[in-house]
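During the reporting period the student researcher (J.K.) took over the structure-prediction task from the postdoctoral fellow and processed the backlog of single-chain submissions. One of the processed entries is reproduced below for the supervisory committee.
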Amino acid sequence: MNLCISNQNSLLSCSEHLDISGNRISGTIPVGLGLLNNMIELHIEENSLSGTIPSEFGLLTSSRIVSIHSNNLRGSVPSEIGALEKLEEFHMNDNIITGIIPNEMLNCAQLKMLNLQNNELSGVISSNIQHLKALEICRYHFPLIIVA
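J.K. obtained the following structure tokens:
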């Protein structure tokens, strides 16, 4: 188990790997997780988390893996996720995410795995997704229209 040090309002420091998956944790994702800029792997999947993906996740600039799948997350994917230039895997499948995938995701040049399936996504993905040269797997189950 990784140790996180906190004060009353937010997490102050944490190891580079946090895995609290499969623990039946409920509530919303703490905004303070976004302040953990040394976080390389964040696994909070398979819980009962609700609410939205905090825009502060865009501050996780060292992250290579962000796994938030199999929760009850709603809302849209924040455009700030595009600031995660080292991101290699983003798993947000099996939630209730709506809206479109922001074009800012194209800034995640190291992205190898993008799992979007089993959400309520819609809209279009820019044809510029082809510029994600590292992308090996992109899973989605929604009417996908690719536009130039």
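The committee noted the following: The chain has no helices and 15 strands.
J.K. will present the remaining backlog at the next meeting.
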